[in-house]
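Writing this down once: the sequence line spells out the residues, with the fold written below as integer tokens. This is how one looks:
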Amino acid sequence: MEDVSEVVVALNLSAEGREEFVCHAYEQHRAAIYRHMIAIGLDPNSAQDLTQEAFLSLFESLSKGQRIQHLRSWLFSVASRLAVRLLEKRRGEAIVSVPDMVDLISALVDEAEGPEQSALTAERKRALATAMQTLSLQQRVCLHLRAEGLRYREIAEATALSIPSVAEFLRRAITRLRSVLDGK
């Protein structure tokens, strides 16, 4: 089967073909969608549930004959909407702990360093995780989608924001993270 990150144009897939396509897409994009859910503030169980729900939405959309042009962007868009809806419903409730955020950041960083450097890196990760929790939900969503490689236009489509709003959320998030990490 082709790489599912390519444009999806096959609208007439059989039920078996759709299932195979979605399974392949799941294997290819599941980890990135899950990381996105954790990065914007969901607990691991909710992140896993909503990741699966995003792929179920893919299957349902393909079953209805919907044309999905950019699969990766589409998946992040669906996942973001699901996460934002859940986070807004849970407003005020603790969502993800600093240790969970540190674990996520650790999974993204190579640990081939000495003990002293490891201690410094661990402290920096804790500071970054704490700083991430000070960002607004929209800032976290935009920042993580950008970190996943989506362009401003794709982030705008995924979040239903304007491109200038995406740029402003990203600018504010980066400024906030820099100030926290630089100790200002």
In short: Helices lie at 15-39, 44-63, 71-89, 98-107, 115-134, 137-147, 152-159, 163-181.
